[in-house]
């Protein structure tokens, strides 16, 4: 195995590397460092999150910086405040034996203080795109003489909508600089940046392009839509030492799931865009110190989370884009350790699993949701091992005689039985009468209805469809947010071109119809009516101009349109707000 000494790094860097305990370079470091040290070139490096990309560009950058000049020579752009600070701290550790000033520029802190630090002589600036663009506009920073520009987590930045900021920032940099682009995946937008701003870049790929990490095992669990949360609890209980990130698609779902977990006794917390920066910092500090065992997060809020030893990533809901799944799963299996990425899906979402498998070139293993008895067994042996491996506290000696007296009429076997029963009883009492959550085979059209008959639910017609930018997931989110319902309160969502259908339980009927009385979004009426369509044909019934009843939507609740079926796999990619559906994107087409 190649050692860092063989890569051409100078002695001061090797001393810092030794202080940090690094012994052998990762694959991306082994491939990138010699090229970046020995050549003035542009480079595109594709490697999964957690493979050591920061050191791969950080070591060569520090070695090439002129420490005697106070001019800003290197610019690193990263997607989030957390990642910006992390890179800054790592570069400071790498350059501890060099006279190099590294300054972080990010939102949520004083812009004048940051500008003051840069003016003192920052040879390397690490910045988020939004704050960097702001400082350029205010003439608070000069990047016209930089020699090196690093785009770290480029796909993340572009997914977050920073394309215009990045192109504007790069327009203020010299044409003859070296640009180093590091990314986990290579979507179209990243390729566009590379083509527009880089000169015949060399490409390094660790693993296959866009593929998943070999250190992550991928599993999926098929359940009824309404059993997602129960499945999540069972997966957590079946892994007593779990230290995980749980991903949800919207802020509201993130908050709801976290609150439920806390109510049920789990060490959990939510992180999403509605939290203040101080709240985010407190949550992340608690997570890093393992006071939080399950961090429930949206994709946007989780970007920049770099915490080692995460054992599991749980996809409570799958994301819209496959690239996002790649980033999610990259939160575990880092630094040479193994991890597990779990997906909770309904049968109707199985097509997404196949799409992800093709993209990441990894196979998913379908596993059954653990039964209550299996969980009790796992917890029993976990508790027994925990007791066995606990070191006795000498401070207990003074109390031992009194304690021994309490148990003098108890045999060793009975004492052990009672000790483990303290915890075991809690799980047994909960799970002994619970049902099997696993979906029966052959049910491939469950959309959360949990097998309800039509007499227990109401079906509705709504005058929006795929031409308004909806697939069934987006429409479900819109309805859930608008009606303040739980995610599983809306089901059997079927999107046509100009209209759609959905179901709720009968007890929600009055609320739904009342809410959509004279309901407008951006000046357009959104009309919801009770439908005679039961999910197998027909349409809504209404009166035409002559007073006769007629049916609309011939064919009724057939398969979703081709457009919505394939929305996950690409085509025209539509940017999603973190709280999808909170703004109706209606537009009327006139012919």
TrEMBL record:
<dbReference type="InterPro" id="IPR027417">
    <property type="entry name" value="P-loop_NTPase"/>
</dbReference>
<keyword id="KW-0347">Helicase</keyword>
<dbReference type="GO" id="GO:0005829">
    <property type="term" value="C:cytosol"/>
</dbReference>
<dbReference type="InterPro" id="IPR001650">
    <property type="entry name" value="Helicase_C-like"/>
</dbReference>
<dbReference type="InterPro" id="IPR050079">
    <property type="entry name" value="DEAD_box_RNA_helicase"/>
</dbReference>
<feature type="domain" description="DEAD-box RNA helicase Q">
    <location>
        <begin position="2"/>
        <end position="30"/>
    </location>
</feature>
<comment type="similarity">
    <text>Belongs to the DEAD box helicase family.</text>
</comment>
<dbReference type="GO" id="GO:0005524">
    <property type="term" value="F:ATP binding"/>
</dbReference>
<dbReference type="GO" id="GO:0003676">
    <property type="term" value="F:nucleic acid binding"/>
</dbReference>
<feature type="domain" description="Helicase ATP-binding">
    <location>
        <begin position="34"/>
        <end position="204"/>
    </location>
</feature>
<keyword id="KW-0378">Hydrolase</keyword>
<dbReference type="InterPro" id="IPR012677">
    <property type="entry name" value="Nucleotide-bd_a/b_plait_sf"/>
</dbReference>
<feature type="compositionally biased region" description="Basic and acidic residues">
    <location>
        <begin position="544"/>
        <end position="566"/>
    </location>
</feature>
<dbReference type="InterPro" id="IPR011545">
    <property type="entry name" value="DEAD/DEAH_box_helicase_dom"/>
</dbReference>
<dbReference type="InterPro" id="IPR044742">
    <property type="entry name" value="DEAD/DEAH_RhlB"/>
</dbReference>
<keyword id="KW-0067">ATP-binding</keyword>
<keyword id="KW-0547">Nucleotide-binding</keyword>
<dbReference type="GO" id="GO:0016787">
    <property type="term" value="F:hydrolase activity"/>
</dbReference>
<dbReference type="InterPro" id="IPR000629">
    <property type="entry name" value="RNA-helicase_DEAD-box_CS"/>
</dbReference>
<dbReference type="GO" id="GO:0003724">
    <property type="term" value="F:RNA helicase activity"/>
</dbReference>
<dbReference type="InterPro" id="IPR005580">
    <property type="entry name" value="DbpA/CsdA_RNA-bd_dom"/>
</dbReference>
<feature type="short sequence motif" description="Q motif">
    <location>
        <begin position="2"/>
        <end position="30"/>
    </location>
</feature>
<dbReference type="Pfam" id="PF03880">
    <property type="entry name" value="DbpA"/>
</dbReference>
<dbReference type="Pfam" id="PF00270">
    <property type="entry name" value="DEAD"/>
</dbReference>
<dbReference type="Pfam" id="PF00271">
    <property type="entry name" value="Helicase_C"/>
</dbReference>
<dbReference type="InterPro" id="IPR014014">
    <property type="entry name" value="RNA_helicase_DEAD_Q_motif"/>
</dbReference>
<feature type="domain" description="Helicase C-terminal">
    <location>
        <begin position="224"/>
        <end position="375"/>
    </location>
</feature>
<dbReference type="InterPro" id="IPR014001">
    <property type="entry name" value="Helicase_ATP-bd"/>
</dbReference>
<protein>
    <submittedName>
        <fullName>Putative RNA helicase dead-box protein</fullName>
    </submittedName>
</protein>
<feature type="region of interest" description="Disordered">
    <location>
        <begin position="529"/>
        <end position="591"/>
    </location>
</feature>
């Amino acid at each position: 195995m190649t050692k860092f000494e063989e890569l051409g790094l100078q002695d001061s860097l090797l001393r810092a590397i030794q202080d940090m305990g690094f012994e052998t370079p990762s694959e991306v470091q082994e491939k990138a460092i010699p090229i970046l040290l020995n050549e003035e070139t542009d480079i595109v490096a594709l490697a999964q999150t957690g493979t050591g990309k920061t050191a791969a560009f950080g070591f060569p950058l520090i070695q090439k910086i002129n420490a005697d000049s106070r001019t800003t020579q290197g610019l690193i752009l990263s997607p989030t405040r957390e990642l910006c600070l992390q890179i800054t701290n790592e570069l400071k550790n790498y350059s501890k034996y060099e006279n190099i000033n590294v300054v972080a520029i990010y939102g949520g802190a004083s812009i004048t203080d940051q500008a003051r630090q840069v003016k003192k002589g920052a040879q390397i600036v690490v910045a988020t795109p939004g704050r960097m663009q702001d400082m350029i506009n205010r003439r608070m920073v000069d990047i016209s003489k930089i020699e090196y520009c690093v785009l770290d987590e480029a796909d993340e930045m572009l997914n977050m909508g920073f394309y215009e900021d990045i192109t504007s920032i790069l327009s203020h940099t010299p044409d003859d600089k070296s640009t180093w682009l590091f990314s986990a995946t290579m979507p179209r937008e990243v390729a566009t940046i590379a083509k527009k701003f880089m000169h015949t870049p060399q490409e390094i790929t660790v693993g296959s392009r866009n593929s998943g990490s070999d250190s992550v095992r991928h599993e999926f669990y098929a359940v009824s839509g309404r059993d997602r949360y129960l499945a999540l609890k069972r997966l957590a209980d079946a892994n007593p030492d779990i230290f995980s990130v749980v991903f949800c698609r919207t802020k509201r779902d993130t908050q709801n799931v976290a609150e439920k977990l806390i109510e049920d006794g789990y060490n959990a917390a939510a992180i999403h865009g509605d939290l203040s920066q101080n709240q985010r910092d407190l949550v992340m500090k608690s997570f890093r110190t393992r006071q939080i065992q399950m961090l429930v997060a949206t994709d946007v809020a989780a970007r920049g989370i770099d915490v080692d030893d995460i054992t599991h990533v749980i996809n409570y809901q799958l994301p819209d884009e496959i690239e996002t799944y790649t980033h999610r799963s990259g939160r575990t299996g880092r630094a040479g350790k193994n991890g597990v990425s779990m997906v909770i899906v309904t049968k109707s979402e199985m097509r997404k699993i196949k799409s992800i498998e093709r993209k990441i070139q990894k196979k998913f293993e379908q596993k059954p949701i653990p039964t209550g008895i299996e969980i009790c067994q796992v917890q029993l042996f976990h508790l027994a091992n925990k007791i066995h491996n606990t070191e006795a506290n000498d401070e207990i000696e003074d109390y031992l005689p009194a304690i021994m007296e309490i148990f003098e009429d108890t045999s060793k076997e009975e004492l052990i039985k009672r000790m483990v029963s303290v915890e075991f009883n809690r799980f047994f009492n909960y799970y002994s009468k619970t049902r099997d959550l696993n979906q029966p085979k052959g049910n491939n059209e469950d959309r959360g209805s949990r097998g309800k008959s039509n007499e227990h639910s109401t079906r509705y017609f709504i005058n929006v469809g795929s031409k308004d930018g909806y697939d069934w997931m987006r429409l479900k989110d819109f309805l859930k947010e608008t009606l303040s319902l739980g995610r599983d309160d809306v089901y059997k969502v079927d999107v046509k071109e100009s209209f759609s259908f959905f179901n709720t339980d009968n007890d929600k009927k009055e609320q739904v119809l009342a809410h959509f009385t004279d309901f407008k979004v951006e000046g357009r009426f959104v009309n919801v009516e009770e439908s005679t369509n039961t999910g197998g044909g027909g349409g809504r019934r209404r009166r035409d101009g002559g007073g006769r009843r007629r049916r609309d939507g011939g064919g009724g609740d057939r398969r979703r349109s081709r457009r919505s079926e394939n929305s996950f796999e690409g085509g025209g990619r539509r940017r999603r707000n973190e709280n999808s559906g909170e703004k109706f994107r209606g537009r009327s087409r006139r012919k």
